[in-house]
Specification:
This protein is mainly alpha-helical and 205 residues long. It folds into 2 domains: 5-11 and 20-67, Homeodomain-like (Arc Repressor Mutant, subunit A, Orthogonal Bundle), CATH 1.10.10; 72-204. The chain has helices spanning 5-10, 25-38, 45-52, 56-63, 66-91, 96-112, 114-122, 124-156, 164-180, 187-199. Mean pLDDT is 85; it is low at 1-13.
Amino acid sequence: MTQPASATERVLPRGLPAPPSDELEPYLDAATCCVERYGWSRTSTKDIAREAGVERTTLYRHLGSKDRILRLLIAREAHRLIDAAIATAATVEPGPEVVVEIVAHSLEYVWGHKALSKLLADDAELLQGFVTDGLSDTVARFVDALAPVLGAAMDAGTLASRDPAVVIEWLVRVTMTLIVAPAPGDPRRFLRTVITPVLEPRAQR
């Protein structure tokens, strides 16, 4: 069966899909509820369609296969994290602490998200595969969103002058590691120990 145009246009063959459109929200909400209830491996497209109150053919027409549903579901949360990171950057005094808060908020978002936590607990290999496929896309989208913020802080002298893209890729990798292997206690304590020496301006060291 040919992949529906609406899904094909929004989902990359590999990597991080673009932000799902608003019309897909009810279906992704239904998928999220099913993941929380059953876990992803035990969730079927029939379950998701029933939760959304539609036929499976309607679900497929809008979202595509089960694999694509998972990619869209994770992509939605990744883009929400990007939006939240931008919002956090606007509310914290420029400097290493803003970077600590961005990473800490991302960790707390994932840990507090019932569906993502269920995926991590029950289907970690699926997430690992998605991360492997989509890492470069994820980094690129975070770079697009945050490089101007970090670059401006570096130009203003509130962050050490470094390559913003390299810093952001490093932070994404640190975040992904901590998601699956959390440091004990408040993540901010660990993050300050790791991040501050790298990004603190020389004059403040």
